[in-house]
Specification:
This protein is an alpha+beta fold and about 110 residues long. The chain contains five helices and six strands; from the N terminus they run βββαααβββαα. The strands form two sheets. Strands 1-2-3 form a three-stranded antiparallel β-sheet. It starts with a strand and ends with a helix. Bound molecules: zinc ion (ZN) (2 copies).
Length: about 110
């Protein structure tokens, strides 16, 4: 899965259009909460699907300063508080898509397991 485009659709939301025409929307808050860096997720990411609450709570942490593409597989996001350790791979982003189609696919998978 590769994105065709990533754009900001509102001050608080981005939309990723994938090469299969699927669209994933993420609020900036959501994106910050799923920050995949070790500092934010620790080892919990291996055990839980729901990310732990953030320790810091400054409003800037949800401001998106920059999105930079990393190679051909990911983007790096720089947040308003300077945090930029999270590398969001395409797989990670599509795994976290919260649209109805993806949510129901995920619950089917869980059911089979
Ligand atoms: Zn992080
Ligand atoms: Zn989806």
């Amino acid at each position: 899965m590769q994105p065709r485009s990533i754009r900001k659709i509102s001050p608080l939301e981005i939309e990723i259009e994938w090469n299969d025409a699927h669209r994933s929307r993420f609020t900036l808050k959501q994106l910050r909460h799923i920050c995949p860096c070790a500092g934010c997720q620790g080892e919990d990411i291996l055990l839980h699907h729901v990310p732990p609450a953030q320790k810091t709570n400054s409003p800037e942490q949800y401001n998106l300063n920059e999105i930079n593409q990393v190679g051909s597989y990911a983007v790096q996001i720089t947040w308003g508080d300077g945090h930029n350790a999270g590398i969001y791979t395409w797989n990670y982003l599509s795994d976290n898509c919260s649209c109805e189609v993806c949510s129901s696919k995920r619950s089917e998978l869980n059911f089979k397991n």
